Amino acid sequence: MTDQDYMQLALEEAWKGCGFVNPNPMVGAVIVKNGRVIGKGAHESYGGPHAERNAIVHCTENLKDATLYVTLAPCCHFGKTPPCTDAILKNGINRVVIGSHDPNPLVAEKSVEILRQHGVEVTAGILRKECDALNDVFFHFIRTREPYVVMKYAMTMDGKIATASRKSKWITGEAAREKVHQDRKRYTAIMTGIGTVLSDDPLLTCRIPGGRNPVRIVCDTKLRIPLTAQLVKTAQKTRTIIVTGSSDVKKRSLLSKAGCEIFTLPLKDGRIDLKTLMRRLGEMDIDSVLMEGGPQLNSAALESGIVRKVQAYISPKLFGGQQAKTPVGGTGVDSPEAAWHLSAPLITKLGQDILLESEVTPCLQEL
């Protein structure tokens, strides 16, 4: 097997921490000696042992002269756990193969320097593209201290997210909906607008066995959310944040008693200032937000510049209707040149549906 083969095994290990390590990165490690895998491990929970230490613990024999494959550069500082570089040196591992470099200034290139100073051979950049993609959330958050925002919607092939009578269940099939729940597990929070709450009364939980429910966030400028909404009735069990500009003391008190947290933020053009909201969420270590809103929230998010990725689930159906909703509302752009530009999409087939995923790239409005 090659370095790439062993790094692929480490990537598979890393996914074991999906949804449970935020705001830390997902990391996987594999230890190889004489052409045999003798240990594997992942960073499985926030504050728990790092992947390298878990791999070492699970080793079946002496580690002297072994090779460690790890998807992200080992830490070299004391945090919630001791430095992984110490464990590598202590156990006599003589080669370390790294996928991604760590953008954390406490790590950066320091761990590589430490290992090389102690005679350890270090090879970096193996399957770097794949390893970087694994931690797009972590890399964004560590650099900006703001959440990585994913705007997700499902639509028909004629671009409709609901019929003219506002019915939308279900546009996509089971496989696509399963992927959505995987992402609800992966991302720390899920955000929607009051329009979606009033029309659909969603629960916004993760329905994967053993999964983790995201923090639920509702943008509700005028505090119109009903006390009978599923989000309110389940707020004692699943953290729920209502973001508003309203000063309705009575309604705020009732929502608080139901278990909701109320954030009051300044309004911008009569709407929640989403950029300010992202900064506040970042201060709370909420590193990622999956947006499942309607046309107005989607347009506001794009206009505020908070969206990093777009996920478009496309179903082979046609709804028609001039009044049927499309994914992005608002006034839109004046010309094609002023569009929000996206990267070439990653295309995934999910049953009969297709998922297109693109990063948002700088548009002409920002140049």
TrEMBL record:
<feature type="binding site">
    <location>
        <position position="84"/>
    </location>
    <ligand>
        <name>Zn(2+)</name>
    </ligand>
</feature>
<keyword id="KW-0686">Riboflavin biosynthesis</keyword>
<dbReference type="GO" id="GO:0008703">
    <property type="term" value="F:5-amino-6-(5-phosphoribosylamino)uracil reductase activity"/>
</dbReference>
<feature type="binding site">
    <location>
        <position position="207"/>
    </location>
    <ligand>
        <name>substrate</name>
    </ligand>
</feature>
<feature type="binding site">
    <location>
        <begin position="294"/>
        <end position="300"/>
    </location>
    <ligand>
        <name>NADP(+)</name>
    </ligand>
</feature>
<keyword id="KW-0378">Hydrolase</keyword>
<dbReference type="GO" id="GO:0008835">
    <property type="term" value="F:diaminohydroxyphosphoribosylaminopyrimidine deaminase activity"/>
</dbReference>
<protein>
    <recommendedName>
        <fullName>Riboflavin biosynthesis protein RibD</fullName>
        <ecNumber>3.5.4.26</ecNumber>
        <ecNumber>1.1.1.193</ecNumber>
    </recommendedName>
</protein>
<keyword id="KW-0521">NADP</keyword>
<keyword id="KW-0560">Oxidoreductase</keyword>
<dbReference type="GO" id="GO:0009231">
    <property type="term" value="P:riboflavin biosynthetic process"/>
</dbReference>
<feature type="binding site">
    <location>
        <position position="221"/>
    </location>
    <ligand>
        <name>NADP(+)</name>
    </ligand>
</feature>
<dbReference type="InterPro" id="IPR011549">
    <property type="entry name" value="RibD_C"/>
</dbReference>
<comment type="pathway">
    <text>Cofactor biosynthesis; riboflavin biosynthesis; 5-amino-6-(D-ribitylamino)uracil from GTP: step 2/4.</text>
</comment>
<feature type="domain" description="CMP/dCMP-type deaminase">
    <location>
        <begin position="1"/>
        <end position="123"/>
    </location>
</feature>
<feature type="binding site">
    <location>
        <position position="75"/>
    </location>
    <ligand>
        <name>Zn(2+)</name>
    </ligand>
</feature>
<keyword id="KW-0479">Metal-binding</keyword>
<feature type="binding site">
    <location>
        <position position="170"/>
    </location>
    <ligand>
        <name>NADP(+)</name>
    </ligand>
</feature>
<feature type="binding site">
    <location>
        <position position="50"/>
    </location>
    <ligand>
        <name>Zn(2+)</name>
    </ligand>
</feature>
<feature type="binding site">
    <location>
        <position position="200"/>
    </location>
    <ligand>
        <name>NADP(+)</name>
    </ligand>
</feature>
<feature type="binding site">
    <location>
        <position position="292"/>
    </location>
    <ligand>
        <name>substrate</name>
    </ligand>
</feature>
<feature type="binding site">
    <location>
        <position position="196"/>
    </location>
    <ligand>
        <name>NADP(+)</name>
    </ligand>
</feature>
<comment type="function">
    <text>Converts 2,5-diamino-6-(ribosylamino)-4(3h)-pyrimidinone 5'-phosphate into 5-amino-6-(ribosylamino)-2,4(1h,3h)-pyrimidinedione 5'-phosphate.</text>
</comment>
<keyword id="KW-0511">Multifunctional enzyme</keyword>
<keyword id="KW-0862">Zinc</keyword>
<dbReference type="InterPro" id="IPR004794">
    <property type="entry name" value="Eubact_RibD"/>
</dbReference>
<dbReference type="GO" id="GO:0008270">
    <property type="term" value="F:zinc ion binding"/>
</dbReference>
<dbReference type="Pfam" id="PF01872">
    <property type="entry name" value="RibD_C"/>
</dbReference>
<feature type="binding site">
    <location>
        <position position="204"/>
    </location>
    <ligand>
        <name>substrate</name>
    </ligand>
</feature>
<comment type="pathway">
    <text>Cofactor biosynthesis; riboflavin biosynthesis; 5-amino-6-(D-ribitylamino)uracil from GTP: step 3/4.</text>
</comment>
<feature type="binding site">
    <location>
        <position position="154"/>
    </location>
    <ligand>
        <name>NADP(+)</name>
    </ligand>
</feature>
<dbReference type="GO" id="GO:0050661">
    <property type="term" value="F:NADP binding"/>
</dbReference>
<dbReference type="InterPro" id="IPR002734">
    <property type="entry name" value="RibDG_C"/>
</dbReference>
<comment type="similarity">
    <text>In the N-terminal section; belongs to the cytidine and deoxycytidylate deaminase family.</text>
</comment>
<dbReference type="Pfam" id="PF00383">
    <property type="entry name" value="dCMP_cyt_deam_1"/>
</dbReference>
<feature type="binding site">
    <location>
        <position position="168"/>
    </location>
    <ligand>
        <name>substrate</name>
    </ligand>
</feature>
<dbReference type="InterPro" id="IPR024072">
    <property type="entry name" value="DHFR-like_dom_sf"/>
</dbReference>
<feature type="binding site">
    <location>
        <position position="184"/>
    </location>
    <ligand>
        <name>substrate</name>
    </ligand>
</feature>
<dbReference type="InterPro" id="IPR016192">
    <property type="entry name" value="APOBEC/CMP_deaminase_Zn-bd"/>
</dbReference>
<dbReference type="InterPro" id="IPR002125">
    <property type="entry name" value="CMP_dCMP_dom"/>
</dbReference>
<dbReference type="InterPro" id="IPR050765">
    <property type="entry name" value="Riboflavin_Biosynth_HTPR"/>
</dbReference>
<dbReference type="InterPro" id="IPR016193">
    <property type="entry name" value="Cytidine_deaminase-like"/>
</dbReference>
